């Protein structure tokens, strides 16, 4: 199969619509990461997504809809705080888990009773979603467990020859996947941390809790169960008080003829002067935006990425550290 990479235009959107309506799957941009999208109502298309990714069959998908889509046609909105969240954060990097009405097929929700839904804020993605006017289910557009893609070329590197089309919407500015929020209970619960933080949700709803996935639990959200986000090179993670140990590891790798890279926030750059660096930025938002891009850059250049922890897990750093720990095992 030839995989085309096309900029978003009226012509490429028409082609996308035709492919999706025929049961094909395509790569699409969002503000967080690129998604592997298919018609959520079509079980054949959904099975194709799992096949292309090599995704475990019990890991549910997120449905993506445009900003004017009627969410109540897909889910039961049972809690008074849900409209507050929709008004405050959607479109944007927030996914809501609600009781499904069965429009999205059982294969997409892995036979469960709930559906995860979000409205991406990426302009090109909104254009695609309005063009098709159906729920597009989409995990990240990469081989399962690999680092999530934030450019069309990242998608191409993983899925060339497996899908017919990748819509090129530029680099994803968010950089890590959406916050996933279970809103079936009395108070919202974060299933997967992301760019919409616990503090932000609490300001809108008063209370918000963090759910911890336990072995044997029914999975309601992607990103909670399996090893994720791993680059193809070796990785290691050191805490902020282990800089000396990270330097010793770097020097040991060099002595063994390897090419190591240090991945860290800009503020640590001086401590690693003269060494190969993958700099993530200064603010939490910059680090989130650059994390996957730098992991993928590192796998091209390095034999090992030696990552330095953020030293905090509040706000957006909760989502960043969730990804970094999984990326580094």
Structure overview:
The protein is α/β, with parallel strands linked by helices. It has two domains: 4-210, DHBP synthase (Alpha-Beta Complex), CATH 3.90.870.10; 234-327, 3-Layer(aba) Sandwich (Rossmann fold), CATH 3.40.50.11030. The chain has helices at residues 10-21, 43-53, 82-89, 123-132, 152-159, 198-205, 243-255, 284-301, 317-327; strands at residues 4-7, 26-28, 35-39, 62-64, 75-76, 94-100, 114-118, 136-137, 165-168, 179-182, 189-192, 209-210, 234-238, 260-264, 277-279, 304-308. The mean pLDDT is 95.
The DSSP helix count reads 9
Question: What's the pLDDT, averaged over the residues?
Answer: 95
Overall strand count: 16
Topology order in helix (H) and strand (E) letters: EHEEHEEHEEHEHEEEHEEHEEHEH
Q: Biggest sheet, open or closed, and with what strands and sense?
A: 10 strands, mixed
Give the CATH level 1 class of the largest domain: Alpha Beta
Question: Architecture of the largest domain, according to CATH?
Answer: Alpha-Beta Complex
User: CATH superfamily of the largest domain, called what?
Assistant: DHBP synthase
Q: Helix content range of the residues, please?
A: 25-40%
CA radius of gyration is: 20 Å
Low-confidence stretches: none
What name is given to the CATH topology of the largest domain?
DHBP synthase
* Global shape: globular
Number of self-contained structural domains: 2
In whole angstroms, the N-to-C terminal distance is 34 Å
Structural class, by secondary structure, is alpha/beta
Q: Could you tell me the strand content as a percent range?
A: 15-25%
């Amino acid at each position: 199969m030839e995989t085309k990479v096309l900029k978003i235009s009226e012509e490429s959107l028409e082609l996308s619509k035709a492919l999706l309506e025929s049961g094909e799957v395509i790569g699409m941009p969002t503000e967080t990461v690129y998604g592997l999208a298919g018609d959520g109502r079509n079980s054949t298309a959904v099975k194709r997504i799992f096949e292309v990714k090599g995704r475990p069959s019990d890991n549910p998908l997120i449905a993506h809809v445009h900003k004017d889509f009627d969410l109540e046609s897909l889910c039961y909105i049972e809690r008074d705080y849900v409209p507050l969240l929709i008004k405050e954060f959607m479109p944007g990097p927030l996914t809501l888990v609600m009781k499904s009405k069965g429009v999205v097929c059982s294969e997409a929700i892995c036979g469960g009773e709930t559906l995860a839904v979000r409205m991406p804020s990426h302009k090109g993605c909104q254009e695609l979603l309005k063009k098709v006017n159906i729920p597009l289910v989409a995990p990240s557009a990469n081989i399962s467990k690999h680092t999530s893609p934030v450019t069309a070329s990242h998608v191409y590197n993983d899925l060339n020859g497996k899908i017919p089309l990748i819509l090129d919407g530029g680099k994803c500015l968010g950089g890590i996947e959406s916050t996933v929020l279970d809103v079936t209970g009395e108070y919202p619960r974060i299933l997967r941390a992301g760019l919409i933080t616990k503090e932000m949700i609490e300001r809108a709803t008063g209370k918000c809790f963090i759910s911890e996935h336990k072995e044997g639990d029914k999975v309601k959200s992607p990103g909670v169960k399996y090893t994720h986000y791993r680059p193809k090179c070796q990785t290691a993670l050191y805490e902020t008080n282990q800089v000396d140990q990270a330097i010793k590891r770097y020097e040991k790798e060099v002595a063994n003829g390897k090419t190591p890279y240090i991945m860290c926030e800009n503020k640590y750059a001086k401590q690693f002067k003269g060494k190969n660096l993958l700099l993530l930025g200064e603010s939490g938002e910059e680090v989130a935006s650059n994390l996957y891009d730098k992991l993928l850059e590192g796998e091209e250049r390095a034999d090992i990425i030696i990552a330095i922890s953020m030293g905090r897990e509040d706000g957006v750093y909760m989502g960043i550290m969730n990804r970094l720990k999984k990326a580094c095992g």
